[in-house]
Amino acid sequence: MPPAAAPIIAKWIDYFQCEFKISKNRTTKLGDYRHPYRDLGHKISVNNDLNAYAFLVTTVHEFAHLLTWNDHKNKVKPHGAEWKHNFKRMMAPFIEQGVFPQDVQQAIVSYLNNPSAASCTDLKLSRALKKHDLPRDASRLEELPLDAVFTIKDGRQFRKGEKLRKRYRCLCLTNGNVYLFNPLAEVTLAATGT
Prior knowledge:
The protein is of the alpha+beta class.
Protein backbone atom coordinates (compact mmCIF):
# COMPACT_ATOMS: atom_id res chain seq x y z
CA MET A 1 0.00 0.00 0.00
CA PRO A 2 1.16 3.58 -0.31
CA PRO A 3 3.53 4.26 2.63
CA ALA A 4 1.49 7.27 3.83
CA ALA A 5 -1.56 5.00 4.30
CA ALA A 6 0.19 2.35 6.40
CA PRO A 7 -0.02 4.13 9.81
CA ILE A 8 -3.80 4.57 9.49
CA ILE A 9 -4.36 0.95 8.45
CA ALA A 10 -2.08 -0.22 11.28
CA LYS A 11 -4.19 1.77 13.78
CA TRP A 12 -7.37 0.19 12.42
CA ILE A 13 -5.93 -3.32 12.69
CA ASP A 14 -4.91 -2.64 16.30
CA TYR A 15 -8.09 -0.79 17.31
CA PHE A 16 -10.48 -3.41 15.90
CA GLN A 17 -8.23 -6.32 16.97
CA CYS A 18 -8.49 -7.58 13.41
CA GLU A 19 -6.55 -10.44 11.86
CA PHE A 20 -5.25 -8.92 8.62
CA LYS A 21 -3.94 -11.37 6.03
CA ILE A 22 -2.37 -10.79 2.64
CA SER A 23 -3.64 -13.66 0.47
CA LYS A 24 -2.54 -15.23 -2.77
CA ASN A 25 -4.40 -14.15 -5.88
CA ARG A 26 -8.08 -15.14 -5.93
CA THR A 27 -9.74 -14.70 -9.30
CA THR A 28 -13.23 -14.28 -7.84
CA LYS A 29 -12.47 -11.54 -5.32
CA LEU A 30 -9.89 -8.90 -4.40
CA GLY A 31 -10.52 -9.02 -0.66
CA ASP A 32 -12.74 -10.56 1.99
CA TYR A 33 -14.19 -9.71 5.42
CA ARG A 34 -15.30 -12.31 7.98
CA HIS A 35 -17.20 -11.18 11.06
CA PRO A 36 -16.38 -12.59 14.52
CA TYR A 37 -17.50 -16.16 15.02
CA ARG A 38 -17.30 -18.18 18.24
CA ASP A 39 -13.91 -17.29 19.76
CA LEU A 40 -12.47 -15.86 16.55
CA GLY A 41 -12.35 -12.09 15.91
CA HIS A 42 -12.65 -10.01 12.76
CA LYS A 43 -10.71 -11.29 9.73
CA ILE A 44 -9.78 -9.35 6.62
CA SER A 45 -7.80 -10.68 3.67
CA VAL A 46 -6.59 -8.77 0.61
CA ASN A 47 -4.98 -10.24 -2.52
CA ASN A 48 -1.21 -9.88 -2.77
CA ASP A 49 -1.14 -9.17 -6.52
CA LEU A 50 -2.86 -5.78 -6.39
CA ASN A 51 -0.95 -2.57 -7.03
CA ALA A 52 -0.53 -0.28 -4.00
CA TYR A 53 -3.60 1.86 -4.76
CA ALA A 54 -5.93 -1.05 -5.56
CA PHE A 55 -4.66 -2.75 -2.38
CA LEU A 56 -5.58 0.32 -0.32
CA VAL A 57 -9.04 0.74 -1.90
CA THR A 58 -9.77 -2.95 -1.28
CA THR A 59 -8.50 -2.72 2.31
CA VAL A 60 -10.75 0.28 3.05
CA HIS A 61 -13.67 -1.56 1.41
CA GLU A 62 -13.19 -4.51 3.78
CA PHE A 63 -12.73 -2.31 6.86
CA ALA A 64 -16.01 -0.59 5.97
CA HIS A 65 -17.62 -4.04 6.22
CA LEU A 66 -16.04 -4.51 9.65
CA LEU A 67 -17.33 -1.15 10.91
CA THR A 68 -20.79 -1.85 9.48
CA TRP A 69 -20.84 -5.25 11.23
CA ASN A 70 -19.85 -3.62 14.53
CA ASP A 71 -22.65 -1.05 14.18
CA HIS A 72 -25.45 -3.26 12.79
CA LYS A 73 -24.39 -6.94 12.88
CA ASN A 74 -26.19 -8.75 10.04
CA LYS A 75 -29.30 -6.56 10.15
CA VAL A 76 -28.34 -4.51 7.07
CA LYS A 77 -27.39 -5.31 3.47
CA PRO A 78 -23.66 -5.97 2.94
CA HIS A 79 -23.32 -3.03 0.50
CA GLY A 80 -26.32 -1.01 1.66
CA ALA A 81 -26.54 2.61 2.77
CA GLU A 82 -24.73 1.92 6.06
CA TRP A 83 -21.74 0.33 4.32
CA LYS A 84 -21.63 3.15 1.73
CA HIS A 85 -21.60 5.73 4.53
CA ASN A 86 -18.77 3.92 6.35
CA PHE A 87 -16.75 3.43 3.15
CA LYS A 88 -16.94 7.16 2.36
CA ARG A 89 -15.99 8.04 5.94
CA MET A 90 -13.06 5.64 6.03
CA MET A 91 -11.76 6.74 2.62
CA ALA A 92 -11.75 10.44 3.64
CA PRO A 93 -8.34 10.54 5.40
CA PHE A 94 -6.60 9.10 2.35
CA ILE A 95 -8.29 11.60 0.02
CA GLU A 96 -7.46 14.49 2.38
CA GLN A 97 -3.78 13.43 2.61
CA GLY A 98 -3.49 13.10 -1.17
CA VAL A 99 -2.31 9.47 -0.88
CA PHE A 100 -3.56 8.64 -4.39
CA PRO A 101 -2.22 9.96 -7.71
CA GLN A 102 -4.50 12.57 -9.31
CA ASP A 103 -6.13 10.20 -11.83
CA VAL A 104 -7.00 7.65 -9.13
CA GLN A 105 -8.14 10.33 -6.68
CA GLN A 106 -10.55 11.81 -9.27
CA ALA A 107 -11.96 8.35 -10.03
CA ILE A 108 -12.39 7.59 -6.31
CA VAL A 109 -14.14 10.90 -5.63
CA SER A 110 -16.54 10.13 -8.50
CA TYR A 111 -17.02 6.55 -7.26
CA LEU A 112 -17.79 7.79 -3.73
CA ASN A 113 -20.99 9.44 -5.00
CA ASN A 114 -22.54 5.96 -4.99
CA PRO A 115 -20.02 3.20 -4.18
CA SER A 116 -20.93 -0.27 -5.39
CA ALA A 117 -20.27 -3.76 -4.07
CA ALA A 118 -16.98 -4.03 -5.94
CA SER A 119 -14.67 -1.24 -7.06
CA CYS A 120 -13.88 -3.27 -10.18
CA THR A 121 -17.49 -2.82 -11.40
CA ASP A 122 -16.89 0.93 -11.69
CA LEU A 123 -15.05 1.06 -15.01
CA LYS A 124 -13.65 4.57 -14.49
CA LEU A 125 -12.12 3.61 -11.12
CA SER A 126 -10.98 0.21 -12.38
CA ARG A 127 -9.23 1.79 -15.39
CA ALA A 128 -7.53 4.39 -13.18
CA LEU A 129 -6.31 1.70 -10.78
CA LYS A 130 -5.13 -0.64 -13.57
CA LYS A 131 -2.94 2.13 -15.04
CA HIS A 132 -0.73 1.62 -12.00
CA ASP A 133 -0.35 -2.16 -12.43
CA LEU A 134 2.99 -3.62 -13.42
CA PRO A 135 3.46 -4.10 -17.18
CA ARG A 136 1.43 -7.06 -18.43
CA ASP A 137 1.64 -9.60 -21.23
CA ALA A 138 -2.12 -9.77 -21.66
CA SER A 139 -4.46 -7.39 -23.47
CA ARG A 140 -7.73 -6.04 -22.18
CA LEU A 141 -10.73 -7.41 -24.05
CA GLU A 142 -11.90 -3.89 -24.95
CA GLU A 143 -8.62 -3.37 -26.84
CA LEU A 144 -9.30 -6.25 -29.27
CA PRO A 145 -11.25 -5.79 -32.50
CA LEU A 146 -14.70 -7.33 -33.01
CA ASP A 147 -14.49 -11.05 -33.96
CA ALA A 148 -10.94 -11.38 -32.58
CA VAL A 149 -10.17 -14.81 -31.12
CA PHE A 150 -8.65 -14.74 -27.65
CA THR A 151 -7.65 -17.12 -24.88
CA ILE A 152 -8.30 -16.79 -21.15
CA LYS A 153 -6.11 -18.12 -18.31
CA ASP A 154 -7.70 -21.59 -18.27
CA GLY A 155 -6.86 -22.09 -21.96
CA ARG A 156 -10.37 -21.75 -23.42
CA GLN A 157 -10.72 -19.78 -26.64
CA PHE A 158 -13.45 -17.25 -27.41
CA ARG A 159 -14.54 -15.03 -30.26
CA LYS A 160 -15.25 -11.43 -29.23
CA GLY A 161 -18.79 -10.35 -30.02
CA GLU A 162 -20.74 -7.13 -29.70
CA LYS A 163 -20.81 -5.01 -26.59
CA LEU A 164 -24.09 -5.11 -24.74
CA ARG A 165 -24.70 -2.47 -22.07
CA LYS A 166 -21.51 -2.96 -20.08
CA ARG A 167 -20.07 -6.32 -21.13
CA TYR A 168 -18.97 -8.04 -24.31
CA ARG A 169 -20.86 -11.07 -25.56
CA CYS A 170 -18.29 -13.72 -26.49
CA LEU A 171 -18.69 -17.17 -28.02
CA CYS A 172 -16.70 -20.02 -26.46
CA LEU A 173 -15.14 -21.91 -29.35
CA THR A 174 -14.77 -25.03 -27.18
CA ASN A 175 -18.41 -25.63 -26.22
CA GLY A 176 -20.47 -23.11 -28.22
CA ASN A 177 -21.77 -21.33 -25.10
CA VAL A 178 -22.04 -17.55 -24.92
CA TYR A 179 -20.38 -15.72 -22.01
CA LEU A 180 -20.43 -12.08 -20.96
CA PHE A 181 -17.01 -10.51 -20.29
CA ASN A 182 -16.00 -7.37 -18.47
CA PRO A 183 -14.29 -4.99 -20.96
CA LEU A 184 -11.22 -4.92 -18.70
CA ALA A 185 -10.82 -8.73 -18.62
CA GLU A 186 -7.21 -9.65 -19.32
CA VAL A 187 -7.00 -11.97 -22.32
CA THR A 188 -4.37 -13.16 -24.78
CA LEU A 189 -4.93 -12.70 -28.50
CA ALA A 190 -4.90 -16.18 -30.05
CA ALA A 191 -2.03 -16.95 -32.39
CA THR A 192 -4.39 -18.39 -34.99
CA GLY A 193 -7.49 -16.63 -36.25
CA THR A 194 -9.78 -19.66 -35.81
